[in-house]
Specification:
single chain; 450 residues; alpha+beta; Arc Repressor Mutant, subunit A; 5 domains; six-stranded mixed beta sheet; 13 strands; 44% helix; 13% strand; HTH_RamB; Lambda_DNA-bd_dom_sf; XRE family transcriptional regulator
Length: 450
């Protein structure tokens, strides 16, 4: 449509529409509703989530000292992300390849061909889909809908399905842990081997995984062939991810799970008890509820170890974790390690002034013996403060009072908060003032960007 026709259609002036299109004016709620009604769209269609992730990545990347002579103001980064997102993505891909090349060079004194790690490729691909794969999600929902539960126990019903359709028996094995496997299929003996001492929710998920691998392989291959990563290793990792996605969607069917989530006000513990699944499985599923016309709260979800290594990262909102360097120590996910098994709730504000409600808790199992070394894991689920009131975790919080909101950053290297006493190293890409006439909370300050 021409701008004139568009302006007339929605009942605004041509100049106002021009300002909206150039991102010089915000899109007010009443106009957003008008656009959705007239063009049969959902508010999610107008989301700036992708642009927010690109802008955050650009801010981190431009903080590298290699760009110290090419200062790029935040306003220019925002304009680039809005008008040339594909070019920005190409630039970020090039930078990641550069950093990978540098790391390999210093580790091996050899300079291999620069490339992204397959894990990073898959992570970027999943993020582009906002962690929602419609065809696979609907296939899992249809499977559950046509499924006959045995004694209201999903795990025993899945085991019966595997025997009836594939002739596979379930066998509890005592030596699975020593092999480093969580399940194994022996086609010759027609057996599925599972660890003998694993929790019920793990057994449930693994059986759903196996069904996805056996029965959804063609659909997964079609998705990967049509729109998946092109590198072989990345494509194989993406195949594993999609198998896991199907498993999560099978044990927590979309419509049924969303209905209960809204009834229970997104109470993770209530949901895990209702569906007999784990805390992590509920958190992961909550981060996928982005079906058009039936959206849940857009959550981000991260899982990391006690050293700050990010093991899983998905986001359906504007939130972006640090891509280079460690996460911010003020984040409540680190406080969760000090209170194992207890939920930590936090209101935090990122450097783009967005405020989030964060729910963090440790997960995992206790050691089975003195010699065991159980992995210490925590996860955090977060949503925008505008959605916080829909959750049970907002109870007792004054969402209008931001005086106790914790400022968190994208990692010290890219964070411009000079007054933070938790800073571990200077912000990159800016001139330092060591304070010849004054000393700050840290022994260095970065001069403001011009």
């Amino acid at each position: 449509m021409t701008q004139a026709a568009m302006a007339e259609r929605v009942g605004i002036s041509l100049s106002y529409l021009n300002q909206l299109e150039r991102n010089h004016r915000p899109l007010p709620n009443h106009l957003l509703q008008n656009l959705c009604e007239r063009f049969t769209l959902t508010p999610a269609w107008f989301s700036d989530t992708r642009e927010a992730h690109i802008i955050q990545a650009l801010r981190e990347t431009m903080a590298d000292p290699i760009f110290k002579t090419a200062s790029l103001p935040f306003s220019k980064m925002t304009e680039a992300a809005n008008h040339s997102p594909e070019l920005c993505q190409a630039f970020l891909t090039l930078y990641r390849a550069y950093t990978f090349n540098q790391e390999q060079y210093f580790e091996t004194a050899l300079s291999p061909s620069p490339s992204l790690e397959p894990y990073d490729v898959v992570g970027n691909w999943v993020q582009e889909h906002r962690n929602y794969f419609h065809e696979l999600d609907r296939a899992a929902e249809e499977f559950y809908k046509n499924f006959t539960l045995k004694d209201d126990q999903l795990s025993s019903s899945l085991a019966k399905h595997l025997y009836d359709r594939h002739g596979l028996h379930i066998t509890q094995s005592t030596d699975m842990e020593s092999t480093g496997l969580v399940w194994r299929i022996d086609q010759h003996k027609r057996q599925i081997y599972l660890p003998h001492n694993q929790p019920h929710e793990s057994t449930l998920f693994f059986l759903a995984q196996i069904i996805g691998q056996l029965e959804q392989s063609r659909l997964i291959t079609d998705i990967l062939r049509r729109e998946g990563p092109k590198d072989y290793n990345a494509q194989e990792l993406a195949r594993v991810y999609l198998s896991n996605y199907f498993a999560g969607a099978l044990i927590l069917p979309y419509a049924r799970f969303l209905e209960q989530a809204e009834i229970m006000r997104y109470d993770i513990d209530e949901l895990r008890r209702h569906f007999s699944v784990s805390f992590e499985q509920v958190c992961h599923r909550l981060s996928t509820l982005q079906r058009t016309g039936a959206e849940g709260i857009p959550f981000y979800f991260l899982k990391l170890d006690i050293a700050g290594n990010i093991l899983k990262s998905f986001s359906a909102n504007r939130f972006s974790q640090a891509r280079f360097g460690g996460p911010c120590p003020l984040w409540n996910v680190f406080r969760a390690f000090a209170t194992p098994g207890q939920i930590q709730v936090q209101l935090s504000q990122t450097t783009d002034d967005a405020i989030y409600l964060n729910v963090a808790r440790t997960v995992g199992h206790e050691g089975s013996s003195y010699a065991d070394r159980p992995r210490q894991i925590a996860m955090v689920l977060g949503c925008s403060i505008t959605d916080a009131a829909k959750t049970v975790y907002a109870a007792g919080l004054n969402l209008e009072d931001h005086s106790m909101v914790v400022p968190i950053g994208p990692g010290c290297r890219a964070c411009g908060r000079d007054q933070c006493s938790h800073r571990s190293l200077p912000v990159s890409g800016r001139i330092l003032d060591t304070g010849s006439h004054a000393r700050g909370v840290v022994p260095y300050r970065a001069l403001p960007e011009e």
